[in-house]
Design a protein that fits this description.
This protein is of the alpha+beta class. It folds into 2 domains: 64-147 and 156-229 and 338-355, Galactose-binding lectin (Jelly Rolls), CATH 2.60.120; 233-334, no CATH class. It has helices at residues 2-7, 18-25, 27-58, 117-126, 147-153, 179-182, 189-196, 232-250, 258-271, 278-281, 287-297, 327-334, 339-343; strands spanning 63-66, 72-75, 79-87, 93-99, 105-114, 167-172, 204-205, 209-213, 219-225, 345-355. The strands form 2 sheets. A 6-stranded antiparallel sheet has the order 1-2-3-10-5-8. Strands 4-9-6-7 form a 4-stranded antiparallel sheet, with no helix packed on it. The protein is elongated, with a radius of gyration of 37 Å.
């Protein structure tokens, strides 16, 4: 009995994973399974790689951040791309973008601005075609109907002889990086020279695009649209040219005789270069005043409006003292140095690409 029990065999049959164990017992089947799993892994790897590459191509930047001045900065391992919306009413607007002298920049811009909002409002009220048009970042050629005036005005723009509204850039050191916010309250000579870029060749003309541009020094990028900055020095120079242009035109009209001409020039020297007001110093008994009375009685007096820089009274009044008293003397008397901010409207989108050193 005991021997019968010893001779008995117990067989265990695995039913649940029978197919798997049959494969493991068969080497050929095992190799097929391993090859199939390997191919599946390869397919999954390449599929994941395609997804990563696609996402990377649509959104290639590793980090995205903004600076305190509203510039959006996108970075990857090769370059840095910055988007900044520039309000053209600002003068040398601080972008907060720091650069080094040897940085390599590509700058592109687009947008529209208007340099005389009061003209825009006037034409809109009259429902007429705009006398002054919206301009882009490349500016616009001088119009034939404004050629005489604008050819003279180009020398007083920030970038001389460059189109109105063309985008400009200046790399300003950290100590002067908030120019526009201090413009009204500060009138020292050095500050005004930086604002108008007079006695300086540091203004960089950007326009629609500049490629492979090196800043040339460390600092912060500031931007402006090309227009006239009415600092005291600029008003001084503009008034003198305007006066000379009117007198040159009048040489054929003979309204301002030699004595009246000398009185006007003396008045300019006394008032424009000093603190006195032309309105207050203009003597009603002078030869100059009598010449103005004579001019005022002429039917063609409006022709003097289009001579030179074509400045009128700021309040558009038909005054007896025009052209001796004009828009520039109004600015001087009222210390209306913020005319830039009250005059310009619009925005430019500026895109800056900076290559990273490897």
């Amino acid at each position: 009995m005991e021997n019968d029990i010893k001779n008995q065999k117990v067989e265990i049959e695995i039913v649940r994973h029978k197919g798997l164990f049959e494969i493991l017992r068969d080497p050929k089947q095992l190799w097929k399974v391993m090859l199939a799993m390997f191919l599946l892994i390869i397919v999954l790897f390449f599929g994941l790689a395609v997804v990563v590459v696609s996402v990377k191509s649509m959104y290639p930047y590793e980090t995205v951040r903004t600076n305190p001045y509203g510039a959006t900065i996108l970075e990857d391992e090769d370059k840095e791309v910055i988007y900044w919306l520039f309000n053209t009413a600002e003068l040398w607007a601080n972008s907060g973008i720091e650069v080094k002298a040897d940085d390599v920049l590509t700058i592109r811009s687009s947008g529209k601005m208007h340099t005389a909002i009061h003209h825009l409002v006037r034409d809109a009220e009259k429902n007429k075609a705009l006398d002054d048009r919206w301009l882009g970042t490349e500016g616009a050629p001088v119009r034939k109907d404004k050629q005489a005036r604008d050819e003279l005005r180009t020398k007083f723009r920030i970038a001389e002889q460059k189109p109105e509204s063309i985008l400009l850039m200046q790399v300003i050191d950290y100590n002067h990086s908030n120019l526009s916010t201090e413009f009204i309250t500060r009138s020292d000579s050095k500050h005004q020279d930086i604002l108008s870029c007079k006695n300086s060749n540091e203004v960089i003309v950007i326009g629609k695009e500049r490629r492979n541009l090196r800043p040339g020094k460390d600092g912060i990028l500031h931007f402006a649209a090309n227009d006239i900055v009415l600092t005291d020095k600029v008003i001084d120079s503009m008034y003198k040219q305007y006066m000379d242009s009117v007198l040159a035109y009048d040489s054929t009209q003979q309204i301002f005789n030699e004595t009246a001409t000398k009185e006007w020039k003396a008045l300019y020297e006394e008032c424009i270069k000093g603190d006195a007001s032309i309105e207050e110093r203009l003597d009603t008994n002078s030869t100059l005043y009598k010449a103005l009375e004579k001019l005022h009685q002429r039917k063609d007096k409006n022709k003097y409006t289009n001579v030179g820089l074509a400045f009128k009274m700021y309040e558009q009044q038909d005054t007896l003292t025009y052209p001796v008293v004009n828009e520039l003397t109004f600015y001087k008397k009222k210390q209306f140095r913020d005319a830039w901010f009250a005059d310009n409207i619009g925005s430019f989108l500026i895109v800056i690409e900076r290559k990273k050193e490897k």
